[in-house]
Design goal:
Riboflavin biosynthesis protein RibD, oxidoreductase, alpha/beta, diaminohydroxyphosphoribosylaminopyrimidine deaminase activity, single chain, 5-amino-6-(5-phosphoribosylamino)uracil reductase activity, EC 1.1.1.193
Length: 321
């Protein structure tokens, strides 16, 4: 990895601090560097303003003169009542160079931010940074497909069960895996379960980690009926396109909701928490997901991460494109 790619990866890591509080704006990270040393850094603030570049450049002040700005997303080119265009801030900063990790698909910027910076006489390079793209995955999915990025979480036994035959499911996984799930919830805009799960378990779906309760996502239920107070209804998986303010959707189950989203081809990422237990005769994690032949099941998913969480194992899969 080149030095530029390392700094972009660091900017992507900073961006994660803004998620999901930056909504409706994407979470972006920015670092001002000179002679290999960090001058300042910033990430998108709650509510979407100030942007990461504005924070980093304000902190750098005159020290930005001759420095390099690394930013995970192309600086915006459009002016807003909420703040200036970041491309204009960069042009006025006396930076020597800007390195961008991901182009902005927003038609108001889409290349115009980089072009404006170059016109101001500042070198500007657009590099392909996997870390930056991953950090902006929800924003990019919404821009490209008109829907949020959808992560399906399953907590299963070794034999693929999510509950005993009588419905008992608390708890298949241990404390560490459940804490990790809560951390994942805190990074999402909305969380969804099926109507059957809501009626049977009355799940809270909040974030129960110290000091993080305020990051609990919106609660949605997949149902053709009504929802209790504090919940929102999604009538079908395809209706996710109506969730215009949501960049990251976390589907937690049960089997009906999980299968419906898989059958619709709308799951981008799988989080499978696997406990070292056998249930036998329990409730399966999935129902029919629309496969007509075994060959169709192959080549659909790519393992991107595997880690031990106490006695349980987490495997993360991304859909092959």
């Amino acid at each position: 990895m080149s030095n530029d790619q390392r700094w972009l990866a660091a900017a992507a890591s900073l961006a994660a601090r803004g998620r999901p509080l930056s909504r409706p704006n994407p979470a972006v990270g920015a670092i001002v560097v000179r002679d290999g040393r960090v001058i300042s850094r910033g990430w998108t603030q709650p509510g979407g303003r100030p942007h990461a570049e504005a924070v980093a450049l304000a902190l750098a002040g005159e020290a930005a003169d001759g420095a390099t700005l690394y930013v995970s997303l192309e600086p915006c080119a459009h002016r807003s009542e909420r703040g200036p265009a970041c491309a204009d801030l960069v042009c006025a900063s006396k930076l020597a160079r800007v390195v961008v990790g991901c182009g902005d698909p927003d038609p108001r910027t889409a290349g115009a931010g980089i072009a404006r910076i170059r016109q101001a006489g500042i070198a500007c390079d657009l590099l392909d940074s996997p870390e930056c793209a991953q950090g902006l995955s929800g924003y990019l999915t919404r821009a490209r497909h008109g829907r949020p990025e959808i992560t399906l979480k399953l907590a299963v036994s070794l034999d693929g069960c999510i509950a005993m035959s009588n419905g008992e499911s608390q708890w298949i996984t241990g404390d560490s895996a459940r804490a990790h799930t809560h951390a994942m919830r805190a990074q999402t805009d909305a969380i969804l379960v099926g109507g059957g799960t809501l009626r049977a378990d009355a799940p809270r779906l909040d974030v129960r980690l110290p000091g993080m309760a305020a990051l609990s996502p919106e609660r949605w239920v997949l149902t053709g009926g009504e929802a209790p107070e504090g919940w929102r209804v999604l009538p079908s998986p395809e209706a996710v396109q109506s969730m215009s303010h949501v960049q990251y959707l976390f589907v937690e189950g049960g089997a009906g909701a999980a299968s419906a989203f898989l059958k619709a081809g709308l799951v981008d990422r799988l989080l499978i928490y696997r406990a070292p237990i056998l249930i036998g005769g329990g409730r399966a994690a999935l129902h029919d997901i629309g496969l007509n032949a075994l060959a169709d099941a192959h080549g659909q998913w790519r393992l991107t991460d595997r880690r031990q969480l106490g006695r349980d194992t987490l495997e993360v899969f991304a859909r092959q494109v």
